[in-house]
Amino acid sequence: MKITVAIPHNTYPEQVREAGLAQLESLREVGREVHSLTATLIQQKNEHRVEIVAEANHHQTLVADATGLTIEAALTTAGDRMRTQLRKLHDKVVDRRHGKA
């Protein structure tokens, strides 16, 4: 699985990139059907925005977006939203395999 953290304008220190990588690594165990995870960290005035994009099997794209007053809060919220989407996708795939869909 390819994991990427993009910081377009280099406004965050390296510790924030490491925190983003840790958040995406925690999503790895939930998203077995995912090929790549990309997080984009953007600072907009006094707000921090995080967008996580997951590319899954069969050309499915999942997107989780969050804003917060701190980058840590935005990362946590976006990670939780993506985790929920990945669990739903996994349950859907498992149900199809067992003929419940």
Question: Would you write up a description of this structure?
Answer:
This protein has a single domain, classed as Double Stranded RNA Binding Domain, CATH 3.30.160.100. Helices cover 42% and strands 35% of the residues. The protein contains two helices and four strands, in the order βαβββα. The radius of gyration is 14 Å and the shape is elongated. A hairpin with a 3-residue loop joins strand 3 and strand 4. With 101 residues, the protein is of the alpha+beta class. It has a four-stranded mixed sheet, covered by helices on one side. The model has no long low-confidence stretch (mean pLDDT 89).
Secondary-structure blueprint of this entry?
Elements lengths: L1 E5 L7 H15 L5 E11 L2 E10 L3 E9 L2 H27 L4
Parallel strand pairs: 1-2
Antiparallel strand pairs: 2-3, 3-4
Strand content: 25-35%
CATH class: Alpha Beta
Count the domains. 1
Helix content: 40-55%
Number of beta-strand segments: 4
| Main sheet strand line-up | 1-2-3-4
What series of H and E elements makes up the topology? EHEEEH
Topology-level CATH name: Double Stranded RNA Binding Domain
- The CATH architecture term is 2-Layer Sandwich
Mean pLDDT: 89
What is the distance, rounded to the nearest whole angstrom, between the alpha carbons of the first and last residues?
Answer: 27 Å
Spans of at least 5 consecutive residues whose pLDDT stays below 50 are: none
The coarse silhouette is elongated
Sheet bearing the most strands, described?
4 strands, mixed
CATH 4th-level superfamily = Ribosome hibernation promotion factor-like
Radius of gyration: 14 Å
Report the total helices: 2
- The secondary structure category is alpha+beta
